[in-house]
Amino acid sequence: MPGNSQRRGRRVTPKKGAAGGTGGKNRSSLAGKGRTLPADERPWHKGYSGTEKLPNKTAWKQEKERRAAAAEGRAPKIGVPGTKDTTWGGGGRSRGGPATGRLARGGARSGPRVSPGRKAHPPKDAPELLVGRNPVVEALRANVPATALYVAQGIDVDDRVTELVRTAGDRGIAILEISRAELDRMTGGVLHQGVGLQVPAYAYEPFEDLLAAAAEQPEPLLVALDGVTDPRNLGAVVRSAAAFGAHGVFVPERRAAGMTATAWRTSAGAAARTPVSQVVNMTRAVKKCQAEGFTVVGLDADGETDLYDLEAAVGPLVVVVGSEGRGLSRLVGETCDLRVRIPMHSDVESLNASVAAAVTLAEVARRRAVG
What pTM was estimated for this model as a whole? Predict the structure, then answer.
């Protein structure tokens, strides 16, 4: 009969019923404790690099590590206090990197922005993390402003790694050795080859200040990019603008390339000398320029004016360059005073945006030089 079985392991008690709840008493124990702080945000760790006051014990740990590293002939594994904003919700200018260029002077505390490929949408004023050995080496060669160089532990050292570590050390950039898992987390899974360069966000010039400063020049010249999405084109245009005497560049805030590390590198340092502004609405910005006495010309393959017949080049001028694919937007094109075409003697329909800008700026500079 059931219940009278003589086999071993038989059940002698009724089945267990449903477990009783706690009535919500243990709800607080299930709440998250927040993220785990990395070493450079822990005030008690020798790798601390925050902006808050450095504890005496942490300073002693860092000094001890410096002495040990000097005795062993290696780089000290310590942080650089003041290079990472650890004040919640506050902003502060990094003191660990160079002061060249227009760096952001404030912003909420956040991690690096990853370029390229991260799916998250970080704040605009968040630093950018440039990854890959070749991009990092090229950025350092171009004197792109940087606040920290991250190197994964145990990576294979080649000539590029040696050069980027040496260059970062010569420029006073903080060099932080972290685990590969931590670098993977920072880059969001992007292939980084064991190195990452933290670049502060570019601080754009206010458009009103840019326009006012240009208007004070004897021969004002500005360049507007209407929807150019490739940061390399933006960097190349900034370089051409600096070479041919333009007094600034302005771009839309949305659906357009910004001054990333890639754009800065392509500009070959010209971004440190040529102010760049972002505008909310390109059409309104163009109308403001017209109100200040500027003649606005848009580059268009079907334009009614030949570039070599542009008599307005000797006066206050704004050159508007369209996007790589569709060219000038309809509203911006209708707002321009003139539409200018570049004469070409081949079957090529159009030029690259940065090349078209360079050709136009060179012709404007030539006309102004001959009077």
Answer: 0.59
